[in-house]
Amino acid sequence: MVQAENPVNTVEVCFSPVLFPEILTHGDFIVVLVDILRATTSICTAFENGVRSIIPVATLEEAKAWKDRGYLVASEQDGKKLDFADFGNSAFSFSRDRVEGKTLVYCTTNGTRALEVAKGSNPVVIGSFLNLDALASWLTGQNRNTVILCSGWKNKFCLEDSLFAGALTLRLLETGKFETACDSARASIDLWKVAGTDLMGYLEKASHRQRLRRLKLDDVIPYTFTTGITAKVPVFNGREIVAEQTKKSE
Amino acid sequence: MVQAENPVNTVEVCFSPVLFPEILTHGDFIVVLVDILRATTSICTAFENGVRSIIPVATLEEAKAWKDRGYLVASEQDGKKLDFADFGNSAFSFSRDRVEGKTLVYCTTNGTRALEVAKGSNPVVIGSFLNLDALASWLTGQNRNTVILCSGWKNKFCLEDSLFAGALTLRLLETGKFETACDSARASIDLWKVAGTDLMGYLEKASHRQRLRRLKLDDVIPYTFTTGITAKVPVFNGREIVAEQTKKSE
Q1: How far does B92 lie from chain A, in Å, by closest CA?
Q2: Cβ burial, residue B215 (10 Å; 0-12/13-18/19+)
Q3: Among A15, A194, A204, whose Cβ lies nearest the Cβ of B194?
Q4: Under an 8 A CB cutoff, do A18 and B22 touch?
Q5: HSE on the CB side for B32, CA within 13 Å?
Q6: Distance (Å, rounded) from C-alpha B79 to C-alpha B90?
Q7: Terminal-to-terminal C-alpha distance of chain B
Q8: Domain boundaries, chain A
Q9: Residues 6+ apart with CB under 8 A from B35
Q10: Is the Cβ pair A15, B18 closer than 8 Å?
Q11: Per-residue model confidence as pLDDT tens digits over A66-112
Q12: Which of B23, B159, B193 has its CB closest to that of A183?
């Protein structure tokens, strides 16, 4: 347990949306929403490529209704793009020529469902390896307790989200401005350290990595685990996601 | 992912009772119930010391009702023995002179609640470090899929149960008669390997270990993490827990 001399803010990790009601952090806190494969990685990509805003929706019916109203829609089920949609959830499809200046509607198997659980009185920000550096610095500047919410895979614990939770928790603890008494946070850090410098090798253990390989959707994997791609921190304002620019990129 | 040449049985790890409805293992399987600190450790101790059977109950009201009917009752809340009870949940209190040949009623914060979740059509057995060797050998002999259910702490992921899950999963995979495609199982094994030979040192990270220290209930910690204490595998038959003797101790 980190014992800061002047205890500051706490960081807690939640391994599944199903576990979110059980978190120990109360009162005012920020939720970092994580769905590394692939929603939050794709959302960070879209903002880096100039998307104006993203409207997350929880159901396919809502996604279709937005499509009928003329919006660009990203929607997938079990990793595959749905026929009516303009985008699946591969980060590579959110290129600048397709998204710059536009508003997208986004519906995914896991990620937006987790957002439904997290949204409420607390602000929700979008985390991925792409914006890890910027996010750590932004969170440190907020001076509030933080809960990292892993979307998991169909509500189950998943390795890739947990590795990210470990990487982010470690960054936050290293600032000396956060502390944790959360076993999930401790476990995440250890898994992140086990993965070490061979993240791609470690990911071979991840069931979702194998699933994407079978679906031939794994071209985006190395990019997904690259840090420093964007300095934008997407923030959900209750209706849509918009990007906050961190100092680094101003 | 382990790819046995002749795929045999699966092993899956569930980090919290709340996640149990999300498991991927279907059909016929055995549940290994784990609450290292402290219910399942104490139950294994009681059987090693000759208890005849243990009746698990979910609520304090039930526990009191059994007490009024003259039964010996173990009951605790947040680690502390309740006034009306004969035992708390320290393994050391279940000594041979107090339990041999008797039937106990058992109610704990976490462990029996997890049992409520797990019981149904599937058999439930009790796991702890004390019977790890016997349990691994018994499970291997069953030739059925296995789900290791961690009780956690107040439904949250906890390190001590996950370490046990890792130790048991590793034993099962090493027989070549099990395989897994479960990220929680992979993570558990890695945490178990990180803890390595300094399990006591690693446990300093565990929030429940710190909680027991504050309550001065941590005298039982080194014993709790000792393997090979008993060859008995407690099995829940739908009404009570009784011990199956494994070959090693016959």
Answers
A1: 26
A2: exposed
A3: A194
A4: yes
A5: 36
A6: 9
A7: 36
A8: 9-243
A9: B41, B108, B110, B111, B114, B150, B151, B161
A10: no
A11: 999 999 999 988 777 889 999 988 999 999 999 999 999 998 777 77
A12: B159
CB proximity B173 to A under 8 Å: no
A78 has a chain B CB within 8 A of its CB: no
Q: How many CB pairs below 8 Å do chains A and B form together?
A: 93
Q: Are strands A53-56 and A103-107 parallel, antiparallel or unpaired?
A: parallel
pLDDT at res. A53? 98
- Answering whether pTM is above 0.90, one says yes
Closest CA to B21 of B135, B116, B143: B116
The CATH topology of domain A9-243 is putative 2-phosphosulfolactate phosphatase (3.90.1560)
Burial (CB count within 10 angstroms: exposed 0-12, middle 13-18, buried 19+), residue B136: buried
Question: How high is the ipTM of this complex?
Answer: 0.92
Classify A222 as helix, strand or coil: helix
CATH number, domain B9-245 = 3.90.1560.10
Separation CA A60–CA A52 (nearest Å)? 22
A1 and B210 within 8 Å at the Cβ level: the answer is yes
**Cross-chain CB nearest to A207 (options B156, B181, B191):** B181
Contact between B187 and A157 using a beta-carbon 8 Å cutoff? yes
Secondary element (H or E) of residue B77 = strand B72-77
pLDDT, one tens digit per residue, over B2-47 is: 544 555 899 999 999 999 999 999 989 999 999 999 899 999 999 9
Cβ separation of A183 and B155 shorter than 8 Å?
no
